[in-house]
Amino acid sequence: MSNFLFITLLAAFPALSTDMYLPALPIIQQQMGIPLVTVNLSLVLFFVFFSFFLLVYGPLSDRIGRRPVLLGGIAIYIAGSVLCALSHSIWLLVAARIVQAAGAASASALSMALAKDLYTGAERQKILAYIGVIIPLCPMVAPLIGSVILEYASWNWIFVCQAIMASVAMYGTIRFDEPEFEKIQGSIWNVVSRYVNVLSNVPFSLSCFTFSFMGIGFFGFLAGSADIYILSFGVTEQQYAMLFGFNALGFMTGSFLCSRLCVDMTASDILRTSLIGIVLASIALYFLGGTVAGFAITMFCMTFSIGVSRPVSNHMILETVDTDVGTASSILTFTYFILGALAMQFISFDWADKPRVIGEMGMIAGVIPFIALYFMRKRHQQKV
């Protein structure tokens, strides 16, 4: 398995862990007789614990190496997937999803660190963009797989498929030839202190925390899309999978465009343009998202713009650090997903018009990093 494919598979863990069972959420809700806000805990708490475990795996990998951490994390993920498959109540499912999250975090955290370890400069920016093209295939394919499983079997079998997927990643980890890098020495407190060291880097902290807002509109869509499409608009699980895949296509085409633009444009220019796109698409969603077509098209435009922005924003953040890359990668992914978890919980409440709420979230997602980018540019000019 090539390094590129291996990193891509690791980066795909969050999407494969959630999108495959999204079509089953209304079924689980109806079978168990629970409200959306309760069934969505299996999504929200996954991302909450996933985010916190990212903070463990990053510095741990900086100390003992990437490969041992991946082996342990993926083994935990497989165990969590089996527990999900055996669950017959929402609380057992939520607990099993937390175990899944604890394992999935290792793959996600170290995919970014390995990109930094194995590639440099413009090559890394291109690799991140190519990964950004491939990763959206998971949201396109995963719900379709989930909907096909639901046609012939119960939702529990979706998690059996996830365990099989993780077994492939385990095989790749066993075969992986880990690159050399300078490991952290000393006690566990020295490892923890690396967070202070990384967070004291002002350019990293500013870009990391503000750029992480870009995804909150998408996470709102992720948690609310099944309810909006299936229960509000009345489409079938299979139609929902196709519509969700159309939305994921926006990510893929946006990331592909980014890989082309980074040849001739600076990262900051690409990011600035894509943030304007996020805001404009969100305004359109606010006013036009009340129908299936209006919601699908405007969300496509939003996720397209996020697809353009995400690879260059990750590259810009990683460019601010030279050491403690695993720790920095964990913080980067943590902030993105913890804000996403909050957005998912927010959209789960009983809003009268959820598409409009997602539109408002998207406007915030574009404005905050745009303002931060402006101040970062002013700060750089003052230094020069």
Please tell me about this protein's structure.
The chain is built from 18 helices and no strands. It has 384 residues and is mainly alpha-helical. The chain has a single domain, classed as Up-down Bundle (Growth Hormone, Chain: A). The mean pLDDT is 86. It is found in: Cell membrane. It comes from Halodesulfovibrio spirochaetisodalis. InterPro entries: Efflux_drug-R_Bcr/CmlA (IPR004812), MFS (IPR011701), MFS_dom (IPR020846), MFS_trans_sf (IPR036259).
Order of helices and strands: HHHHHHHHHHHHHHHHHH
Whole-angstrom Rg: 20 Å
CATH superfamily: MFS general substrate transporter like domains
At the fold tier of CATH, the topology name is Growth Hormone, Chain: A
Termini distance? 45 Å
Overall 3D geometry?
A: globular
Q: Decide which structural class fits the backbone.
A: mainly alpha
Mean pLDDT score, rounded? 86
Give the count of helical stretches.
Answer: 18
The count of β-strands is 0
- Report the β-strand fraction as a percent range: under 5%
